[in-house]
Amino acid sequence: xxxxxxxxxxxxxxxxxxxxxxRDANLLVVGDYLYxxxxxxxxxxxxxxxxGSDNGATFFADVVPGPAGSDPTxxxxxxxxxxxxAQWRGSVYFTAQTTGEGAELWRADAETGLGxxxxxxxxxxxxxxxxxxxxxxxxxxxxxxxxxxxxxxxxKAVDDVAPHVVGASFQPSSVGRGVIQIRLSEAVRLDAxxxxxxxxxxxxSTPATPPSFxxxxxxxxxxxxxxxxxxxxxxxxxxxxxxxxxxxxxxxPLADDFTFDFFVxxxxxxxxxAVDFHDLVVLAQNYNTTGGKTWADGDFTGDxxxxxxxxxxxxxxxxxxxxxxxxxxxxxxxxxxxxxxxARPKPVARTMSVVAKIARVSAQHPVxxxxxxxxxxGGRR
Length: 381
Hints:
Layout (H helix, E strand, L loop, with lengths): L20 E10 L2 E8 L3 E7 L6 E5 L13 E2 L5 E2 L1 E4 L2 E8 L3 E8 L7 E4 L11 E6 L2 E8 L3 E6 L8 E10 L2 E8 L4 E2 L7 E4 L11 E6 L4 E6 L6 E7 L4 E2 L10 E7 L12 H9 L22 H9 L34 H14 L17
Antiparallel strand pairs: 1-2, 2-3, 3-4, 5-6, 7-8, 8-9, 9-10, 11-12, 12-13, 14-15, 15-19, 16-21, 17-20, 18-19, 20-22
Helix pairs in contact: 1-3, 2-3
C-alpha cells in the first residue's frame, strides 16, 4: 500500500507459504476491499481480499477446494475495463472456472464470503461463458458473456438472493431504555403490510403494556435501529422479525424469520447479568466525571455523566441477578457486533469511598422507588 511516497509505501500482506504468488495484474478495489488472486499450495489459485490493514488479508472464496483452484480473473489487463469482480445488493460477483463448467459467474456474501454459488451456466460444458466487464449501473448489474445461441453479448444479472442478518446488538442507554441494531447483508425496506416486528418478555411477569419502540433505517450501512420509547422492566426479551417484514429491491424477503434475545438490567455496567461489586468498581472509577460517559462507564441515567444519580440506580439493584436464560434450539451461525461481557476492571482505592455510600443510598432510596431527578427531555424519571 502506498500514498505515493517512499516512506508511505509498505507491505500490507505476506502469505508466508513457499511458492505463494500474487498476480500483480489482478488487483481491483470493490467496496471497502482490494481483491486479488493468490495462488498457494493449499488452495491453488483463488480469490482473496484485504482491507489494507496489517494482517487484513483474508481468503474470500474457495470455488474449487484443494490445490487445483478456480483460477479467477479479477482484472484482465489486456482488455479495457474488463472488470471481473463487482459488488451488488450485498453479494460479491466474480468470474471463476471449474473443470466441467469453464469460466462462469459466481457470487458470495460480501460481508462474510459465505453462500458461495454459481450464478448461471450460460455456456454449458467446459467452454464457459467467460464473463467480463462486470458493471453496476443504477441498481442493476451488467456483464459481457458468451452464450451459444447469441454469441458474446451484454447480460443483466437477476437478483434472487434473499437478504439476511449479519449482526445484531443491544446497547442500554438509560434505566429501562436501550437501542437494538440489526445489520443486514444488503439494502432492505420495511413492508408495512407484512407481519409486524415484535419484542416480548421471555421470563418473569409480563408487562401490562408491551415494550414500545420506534424504528429507523440507515441505507448506507444497511442497519435497522429499534429505539425504546417506553420503560422496559429488568428481564429477558426476544425480538422477532418475520421473514416477510423486510424485503430487498427485488422483492426477496429475509431468508428466515429472525429472533434476537437480549436482557435489560439497570446498574449492570459490564453486562454479565448481575449488579455487584464489579459494576460498583466501574462506577467508582468514573465517579464525579462529566461528559462523554456511557453505560459501560457507569452512566445509568443517560446524561453523559457519572454521579450520585447513577449510584442511586446501582444501589437500588445491588446484589440482584438475572438467571441464565433457558437454552434455545441451535440457530445458523452469525457474527454479533457485541457478544461478550466487558472486561472487568481491577478495583481502585477510591472504590471504597463509594462503597461506603451504598448503605446510605439504599436507606434513602429503597428498591422500587423512582429516581426523582428531572429528565432533560421533559417530565421526571
